[in-house]
Write a structure and sequence with these properties.
heterodimer; A: mainly alpha; MetI-like fold; 2 domains; 11 helices; B: 326 residues; mainly alpha; two-stranded antiparallel ribbon; 2 strands; 71% helix
């Protein structure tokens, strides 16, 4: 009886199954179409902007007489370097050490901190732009506490980007540090080493591949962030290495060029976008490959 | 990949430290814990100041308009009228459009990656999806504005209007830059996250269960529907929840393709605005009172994303956390 029912429905069941499996395949193709479409547009429209002037000149405002005179983006490249470099400078130590704390402590504070970090990673980055604007650009003056603002500057951008990086590094570093076998730490303790010594000499070196991946992934995310720096870095058109000065940055430049009324600037945005995507993907892929390589070397 | 098996925290699993962990560990290595607490405390302090700063910056706006910021229907910066309801509606509408496409396609793609593809292709396609997650949002915005918008204006939206007879919600002239376009760009942006996280959830359903169901005569799709999806439900729902939080807060890409129109969206083809894009585009030229109003929007946005995110994190276990995707 059961077999007869099963046989009667078998045809239909197989047909439905095949159709659904095919639909899943279609979904996968649909998911990949945008990737190739974006990469195609980037290469096709962006690559022709890559010449010496693009990398070495500063932008010129296109005039009505010569709308194609737009110069290069050296200011944005250097601005990105300075802003993200300064951000990494303070975010990496804080993030890695706080990650170590999450991995080593089982206290209530550690649990609360982990939840805070998770929520911070999920918050829209534009909120950090407001924060940086309030704290660094215009300063703080409330309840008798007075902190002078330093105006539009690369530091304000670094502040926002750095705070964005810290929780990402923290969580990923925690995962990497937890992967260090407890037996190794216990061996250290049995030899009479202090916790600090074990952390510095045993735990961190063992977890290094994971830590490097953590930091680089956070950095690759930070390089592409536009929202937190929208109005805090001043978008200057001159080259400057001084973090207290106004600066440009690649993602911001893409945003401004893409929404500008000049066709030449809109087209140039593709060149900058291609550069940004190449940088982000190289860091991203590089970090994964590096970690895999380091892990293999160790074996 | 840096996936490594997690072990319980040292203080819990180390027999040397059970008993009186605090006295032993803190006193014996004060400097070590000092540095650890220092960095953690600094981060906690930054988060506290961050929260306070957003709340404080919005106070003048609450004084000016009261709670009508949340339920008011008119947002006009020029006349200092701050009613964010249309903007909240726009935020929810774009997110809903994105989820409408992203849920079936994302879960379908994840199923295909785990249960249809051969092993070698699986690794390649998984990495491709993760690459998509690494592309900065401003690049999606650029692509949406310069490539998708003209296509939507000339082909997609007139086509939809013709098919549906311009009935709600497909009326109004096609504008390219629109609610629909913003929703579609968001869909493309949250898709990698849904695919990657649901793939993780689907692939931990034990293969024995899969094969067991096959062996009693179920077809592949029946196994997926009755065994795999129920087993992976929590993780998949978590993936969708985290993607929702991301879609609610996405800023730059949406700001570029939505047209920033602070009115209730009347059609999928009309321009609209979202909380994050309004903050992004109106902040620069704002008076102090208007900055405060945007601060109030930021507070609403922060509450929305934090709650959704918190739910999602409960559903996705800590080990499934993937740096770079989430």
């Amino acid at each position: 009886m059961v077999q007869r029912v099963a046989a009667r429905t078998l045809d239909r069941r197989i047909r439905i199954s095949k159709a659904m499996v095919a639909l899943c395949g279609v979904a996968l193709v649909l998911a990949l179409v945008p990737l190739f479409a974006i990469l195609y547009s980037l290469v096709q429209k962006g690559l022709r902007w890559w010449n010496l002037d693009f990398f070495t000149q500063t932008p010129q405002f296109p005039s009505l007489l010569d709308p194609n005179q737009i110069g290069g983006i050296s200011n944005a490249i250097i601005g990105s370097l300075v802003i993200d470099g300064v951000a990494a400078l303070f975010a990496i130590p804080i993030g890695v050490v706080a990650g170590l704390f999450l991995a080593e402590s089982a206290s209530k504070f550690a649990r609360a901190l982990r939840t805070t970090a998770e929520i911070m990673t999920g918050l829209p980055s534009i909120l950090l732009g407001i924060f940086a604007y309030q704290m660094i650009v215009i300063g703080f003056d409330e309840w008798g506490i007075k902190l002078p603002g330093i105006g539009f500057s690369a530091i304000a951008g670094s502040f926002a980007i750095g705070i964005l990086m810290i929780p990402i590094i923290m969580k990923a570093a925690e995962t990497a540090l937890r992967g260090v076998p407890v037996t190794i730490r216990e061996a250290g303790l049995a030899l009479g080493a202090r916790r600090g010594v074990i952390a510095r000499r045993v735990v961190i070196p063992t977890a290094l591949p994971g830590l490097v991946t953590a930091v680089l992934l956070a950095f690759s995310r930070a390089v592409g962030e536009t929202a937190p720096i929208l109005w805090v870095i001043g978008a200057s058109t001159v080259v400057s290495w001084n973090p207290r000065k106004e600066m440009a940055s690649m993602p911001l430049q893409i945003f401004q060029s893409a929404t500008s009324p000049y066709l030449s600037l809109r087209e140039e945005a593709w060149g900058i976008a291609l550069l940004l995507v190449v940088v982000v993907l190289v860091i991203n892929l590089g970090s994964r490959l590096f970690a895999a390589w380091l892990q293999r070397e160790r074996r | 990949m840096s996936e490594v098996p997690t072990s319980p925290p040292l203080a819990m699993s180390n027999p040397l430290l059970t008993g009186e962990p605090k006295r032993f560990s803190v006193k014996s290595d004060l400097a070590h814990w000092g540095v650890l607490y220092g960095a953690s405390g600094l981060f906690a302090l930054i988060c506290a100041v961050f929260l306070i700063s957003i709340v404080v910056s919005s106070i003048p706006a609450w004084r000016h308009s009261g709670l009508s910021i949340i339920y008011g229907r008119v947002w006009s910066q020029g006349s200092n009228s701050f009613g964010a309801l249309p903007i909240i509606a726009g935020t929810l509408a774009t997110t809903a459009i994105a989820l409408f496409f992203a849920i079936p396609i994302g879960i379908g793609a994840a199923l295909a990656i785990v249960h249809v593809l051969p092993d070698r292709l699986r690794i390649v396609l998984s990495s491709l999806v993760e690459l998509l997650a690494a592309v900065p949002s401003v690049v999606y915005g650029l692509w949406g504005l310069l490539v998708l918008a003209p296509w939507f204006e000339n082909t997609v939206e007139p086509g939809l209007a013709r098919i549906t007879g311009s009935k709600f919600p497909f009326q109004a002239p096609p504008e390219g830059v629109s609610l629909l376009l913003a929703g579609c760009v968001l869909f493309i942006m949250i898709l990698p996250m849904i695919v990657a996280l649901s793939r993780d959830a689907i692939s931990v359903v034990p293969h024995e269960q899969f094969e067991g169901a096959l062996s009693v005569g179920a077809t592949k799709w029946q196994v997926v529907r009755k065994v795999v999806l129920p087993g992976a439900r929590t993780g998949v729902v978590g993936a969708v929840t985290l993607a929702t939080a991301r879609a609610l807060g996405e800023t730059v890409a949406v700001a570029m393709v939505i047209g920033l129109n602070p009115l209730f969206p009347s059609s999928l083809f009309s321009t609209a605005s979202t909380l994050a894009s309004t903050i992004a585009l109106q902040f620069q030229d704002a008076t102090p009172l208007q900055v405060a109003a945007l601060g109030a929007l930021a507070l609403i946005l922060m509450a929305m994303t934090a709650i959704v995110n918190w739910f999602g994190r409960r559903l996705i276990s800590a080990s499934a956390f993937r740096a770079g995707v989430v």
